[in-house]
Prior knowledge:
By secondary structure, this protein is of the alpha/beta class. It folds into 4 domains: 1-43, no CATH class; 44-154 and 194-358, no CATH class; 155-192, no CATH class; 382-560, IlvD/EDD C-terminal domain-like (Glucose Oxidase, domain 1, 3-Layer(bba) Sandwich). It has helices at 15-18, 23-30, 62-75, 98-114, 129-140, 166-177, 182-187, 189-192, 204-214, 230-249, 253-256, 259-272, 277-289, 295-302, 319-324, 327-334, 351-358, 417-423, 460-463, 524-529, 534-539, 546-554; strands at 45-50, 79-84, 119-124, 144-148, 155-157, 160-162, 382-384, 393-395, 406-414, 436-439, 471-474, 486-487, 508-512, 517-520. The strands form 4 sheets. The protein has a 6-stranded mixed beta sheet. A 4-stranded parallel beta sheet has the order 2-1-3-4, with helices on both faces. The protein has a two-stranded antiparallel ribbon with strand order 5-6. The model is unreliable at 1-8 (pLDDT under 50). Magnesium ion binds at residues 90, 127, 204, 452, 479-480. This is Dihydroxy-acid dehydratase.
Amino acid sequence: MTDANPAASQPLRSSQWYGPDDRNGYIHRAWMRRGVPGDAFGRPQIAIADTASDLTPCNAHLTEVSRSVADGVIAAGGVPLHLPVMSLGETNVRPTAMLWRNLAAMSIEEMLRANPIDGVVLLGGCDKTIPALLMAAASVDLPAVVVPGGPMLTGTFRGRPLGCGTDVWRLSEEVRAGTLTAAEFTRSESAMIRSRGHCNTMGTASTMGLLAEALGMVLPGLAGTPAPDSRLLVGAHATGRLAVELVAADRRPSGVLTRASFANAIVALAALGGSTNAVVHLLAVAGRLGVDLRLEDFDALGSRVPCLVDLQPAGRFLMEDLHRAGGLAAVLTEICDLLDPAALTVTGRTLVDELDAARAAIFDPEVIRPRTDPLVAEGGIAVLHGNLCPTGAVIKPAAASPSLLQHRGRAVVFDSIEDAHARIDDPDLEVDADSVLVLRGCGPRGYPGMPEVANLPLPRKLLATGVRDMVRVCDGRMSGTAYGTVVLHVTPEAAAGGPLALVRTGDPVVLDVPGRRLDVDLPATELAARSPAAASVAAYARPTRGWEQLYVEHVQQADRGADLDFLVGSSGSAVVRESH
Ligand code: FES
Ligand code: MG
């Protein structure tokens, strides 16, 4: 057996399967011969964890990408192994893809550990796929690198570019307001999804692809490359080569994903105007590594960072424009002094050194604003506390209406999303532009899975008068493509005993984003005397078997990343027992 891994001082992990000259070694090798040369078993075995699926259209092209990765692995002397893994299509999966993120992470983690592999290339795109892959890789801690599948190209409808997601919300509100016909709305569907790739707004998929690079887990310069762009395949090939290098250098996620890397991701999240969903995903990944990352860190490290990127939903442009304008490197170079210089990347060099070497420039200052002229002076996530959210809630001020950031209004309470849909357009609903729409029962436990419903539709009668934003408060999430003055991820959620369950229609709710407060203006004695609203309690999920039951019994609150309590931490890659 030849060792094609001269730099490795340790035997390859896969040699535990393929090395022994006994019956078990025979079994492992014989079924994997597949026509490969005899020395293949001494080379680094690189899994290509592929989330391609016809039911995850955003990732459907990844199998083609995996072939470029495989070519790169072979070119560097490794053996590529295509490993289809659980995939989550954000637009298809009910009741919400978030319910299955931890299941995907758990299944991927176990398959990486159980198989004879030395390193892994992680192919993701659609919202939950990169978080699940990162959580899995962190818990196994084998050498790993991400290829983000990239955004789709910009489609236009009636001469106007369409932002995935963001313009669905906008166009559907236009239909509700009577300024767009239902037939025109339907006609815009194929313009919305013009090519393969994930959503082209600064939604969760774009955010997590770019943050994977800011974390150091992507070949520098690759994230944000549009899915149909041949440069994605060039980067995939180079990543395949890099994966073999990672094994030789024994460079693992635990050495890359340090607190310094998470600090950089939080700064990048703000500068990009990224999705609020990144908060739960980054907290969950950090939890897998034992990195002490708290919800409050997002405010402390990121809230005062300028948002430089003028992309929907906070701004005007789309991901193709960001790539053309200089991409992530141009954005991070502009705020390089805010980055932690110690954070390493998969290349073995620091993120800051990689940025220095890239000599990135802003090619379109309309899309990537210079530091001196930001889109929003303070672009990050604000973390609120108060008697409605004792352990925290978040708001993205850059996507909110400035006039509503300090607001007092009367609560209009909905006990479930179905309750909201049934009553929101009722002409007799007692609601005005100053009301605060409260939606509960949408947390990880209550729904279950913490769906993206926090950006409740506005009452039709108010839309008709020109109202386009109202303060909304919810224990669920909001699509990264959505916008509005929405306080979300309220913790504890109503179904976990949070005070949100005690609010009644008519109660005065006070939002003070500059003061970082969200309160119901009632005496503590009054709140303490109340019990959770019966209609709210009746709407909470009560699964009696399977994954949903396991999830509801073990899921942590959003301020802990909504991971399952028993999945927090790492088990490493050791498997001590044989299969036969
Ligand atoms: Fe897949 Fe938006 S639906 S990224
Ligand atoms: Mg989403």
